[in-house]
Amino acid sequence: MKKVVKFGGSSLASAEQFKKVGAIIRSEEARRYVVPSAPGKRFSSDTKVTDLLYSCYSLAEADEDFETVLAEIRSRYDEIISGLGLNLSLDDEFVTIRKNFKEKAGVDYAASRGEYLNGIVMAEYLGYTFLDAANYITFKEDGSFDDMVTNEKLSACLEKTERAVIPGFYGAYVDGRVKTFSRGGSDVTGSIVAKACRADIYENWTDVSGFMLTDPRIVKDPEIIETITYQELRELSYMGASVLHEDAIFPVRKAGIPINIRNTNSPEDKGTMIVANTCYKPKYAITGIAGRKGFTSISIEKDMMNAEIGFGRRVLSAFEKAGIPFEHMPSGIDTMTVYVNQHEFEEHEQLVLSEIRRLCEPDVIELETDLALIAVVGRGMKKNKGIAARVFAALAHSGINIRMIDQGSSEMNIIVGVESKDFEASVRAIYDVFVNMEL
Questions:
Q1: Which one of 168, 229, 267, 349 has the largest count of C-beta atoms within 10 Å of its C-beta?
Q2: CA neighbor of 30 nearest in space, from 2, 68, 65
Q3: pLDDT band with cut points at 50, 70 and 90 for residue 380
Q4: What own/partner pairs with CB < 8 Å and gap ≥ 24 does 231-236 have?
């Protein structure tokens, strides 16, 4: 078996955390390729190394003294190296960083140095080969990731490298200029490495024991999702769940490699498995609950609307003209309601409304603001009767008025709209009826 393991910033914030990571990696021979993030916060009021690098480079770019901040960054690594008892000096690396900051090498270069330096330390600690991601992770001139070239170069290298550390978050253009990923950088790198080496599993280690069934800020200590499909994950992510970014999922999803979300501080926990498909029966009828506030509904009424060919297209063209995407569009015989992001709509409100009137000549247009959308997602919903009824009963029992109902054709999700003030209470009510079996 072959595993790629990625560790987040909180997992590598100190020498003590490094030791936990080292124990995890050494506990399984299969953990051959390691993707580290930059050191995160050691305590709540601490500053992430990446944020220090941004601050440091900002001073350098303004031709101000950046030595104090650079020294602070250096001390973070020296503290880790000393705590691990390593015979390692980063003198040459910091000489180069100082020179490149003075020469304005770019903010991407600056931000990437956290992962780069942590990769050097991790490789020394484990006795693995250090591979600079800039030599393998390739970007096109337009800034887009070059999947084909990267996979060719990285696959060829890893085929002859038994064990290696590849820093996350960054790569480089063909001319060598460093380029960072825009979101979930180290997660993306881990996924790319897993695909390149044809790993059996991509382990993503963080500070939680997997994905939670809903937001822990709303429901105290929610259940951990044991197994989730990529499709379910996408549905929850779209509705605001804090999960892996799509860019971090795509390479391994395409290659059919499962992702295992694990907790560095509780390595005995099995975490969450993310898979393409599974016959594993979920513990509950639903897999997860996620939602977002800040929506506006635009309801259009017109007699015999259903008989007008192209009516829906004309309505949506009004939003398209203003550059506003729609979220959901439930409709009836003589009514159509479009849900959009309230912030985006407010700026172009009158333009959209006048365009709808001009193109569609509606009888009535009604607006409702401060709405929230909640998605109840789960592959188990297909084979369970009364899922929608339980959702509606839970909300009714809590005195919450439902403003919208929409069920996807895949029968994997039900979306309800409520007033924003009822958002948290709605999530708790739905969680209770499915997990705690309360009504």
A1: 168
A2: 2
A3: confident
A4: 231/379, 231/410, 231/412, 232/287, 232/288, 232/377, 232/378, 232/379, 232/412, 233/274, 235/375, 235/377, 235/408, 235/412, 235/413, 236/287, 236/288, 236/290, 236/375, 236/377
pLDDT (tens digit per residue) in 238-280: 777 776 777 778 888 888 999 999 999 999 999 999 998 888 7
Number of C-beta neighbours around residue 393 at 10 A: 14
pLDDT at 405 over 70: yes
- The sheet with strand 138-139 has its strands ordered as 138-139, 170-173, 178-180
CA angle in degrees (0–180, nearest 5) for 325-329-335: 130
Query: Is the Cβ–Cβ distance between 129 and 163 less than 8 Å?
Result: yes
Cα–Cα nearest to 208, from 8, 422, 426, 431: 8
Residue 202 in 3-state DSSP? Answer: strand
Helix (H, G, I), strand (E, B) or coil at 305: helix
Dihedral sign for Cα 65, 66, 69, 70, please: negative
What's the CA gap between 226 and 177, in Å, rounded? 41
Mean pLDDT on 285-305: 93
d(CA 312, CA 211): 38
Cα–Cα distance measured from residue 389 to residue 289, given in angstroms and rounded to the nearest whole number: 16
**Residue 383 CB neighbours (<10 A):** 10
Q: Is the dihedral of CA 274, 277, 278, 281 positive or negative?
A: positive
Is the pTM value of this prediction over 0.90? no
- Report the C-alpha gap between 174 and 366 in whole angstroms: 54
| Single-letter amino acid code for the residue at 216 | P
Q: Residue 248 has what pLDDT?
A: 76
Whether residue 181 contacts residue 145, with contact meaning beta carbons closer than 8 Å, is answered with yes
Sort residue 271 into left (φ over 0), alpha (ψ -120 to 50) or beta: left
Instruction: Report the phi/psi class of residue 370: left, alpha or beta, with left for phi > 0 and alpha for psi in -120 to 50.
Output: left
Which residues, at least 6 apart from 9, have a Cβ–Cβ distance to it below 8 Å? 37, 38, 39, 40, 41, 48, 49, 50
Residues whose CB falls within 8 Å of the CB of residue 428, separated by 6 or more in sequence, listed in order: 218, 219, 398
In whole angstroms, give the CA distance from residue 177 to residue 112: 11
Q: For residues 430 and 391, what is the distance between their CA atoms, to the nearest angstrom?
A: 6
* Residue 297, H or E segment: strand 288-301
